[in-house]
Amino acid sequence: MKLEIVDLHASVGGKKILNGVSLVINSGEFHVIMGPNGSGKTTLAKAIMGSPEVEVTEGRILVDGVLINDLSPDKRANLGLFLQFQNPVEIGGVGYVNFLRSVAEKRIGGTVSIKELMNEIKDYTNKLHIDQGIVGRSLNEGFSGGEKKKSEILQMAVLKPKIAILDEPDSGLDVDAVRVVANNISEISEKSGMGILIITHYNRILSYMKPQFAHVLYNGKIVYDGAADAVDEIEKNGYEKFIG
Q: What is the mean pLDDT of the chain?
């Protein structure tokens, strides 16, 4: 899959946030996007997935050359896009396993074996160090902050998107949890060949990964596109070199 964002402008609540973002992500690539608070990173993620909170006023979002600007979030997900939320919401009454099964079946257009699904969930609860009691709960209801973040990575593992956008998967996690989450993201992406775009403020999670490309977003524009060694520069000296 090839995801293209071309000269994207977008607003939230009538306030202009994105000012002409262009970005290309292919399946199998590992990108990281960084930038000061308020630069538009989360708005970009939500715009890609078609969040109703974000109004795209100009520009194009394409999947394999096909314009998806007018597609609903579920249709974008069915194409193979996935968004891990910065702050996952609790949805009472929606069982975690039933949610995963219904989404997976919609994605593949067929039936998912509950036995195979449960085995996969068990595998990743172990790998992610999640209490297996999560499977008996409603989606995110009563989850700790760390459980919510790990739960979203588990969802990514089960749904196997072609391109996953991960919005601060490290926020709110302790040192050990960051390592666990990072290792699982790397393993899942390498095994499936999915493309990854990680949005983060810190180098900590990236120290366990091997991103290929780095981007710096500032005032709604990408001001740096290039090699991932920019992450080390940001860690040492901040964004001054990139934003002037």
A: 92
Sign of CA dihedral 140, 25, 18, 229: positive
Give the pLDDT of residue 154.
93
Q: Return the ∠ at Cα 207 (arms to 201 and 209), rounded to 5°.
A: 100
pLDDT > 90? residue 75: yes
- Condensed to tens digits (0 to 9), the pLDDT of residues 224-237 reads 999 998 998 998 88
pLDDT at 133 (0 to 100):
81
Set out the domains of the chain in order of their start, with CATH numbers. Answer: 2-243 (3.40.50.300)
Residue percentage of the chain with pLDDT more than 70:
100
Greatest pairwise CA separation for the chain in angstroms: 55
Closest residue by Cα to residue 151 from 202, 208, 100: 100
Average pLDDT over residues 159-181: 94
Q: Which helix (H) or strand (E) holds 198?
A: strand 195-199
Burial class for 142, CB neighbours closer than 10 Å (0-12, 13-18, 19+): exposed
d(CA 205, CA 70): 34
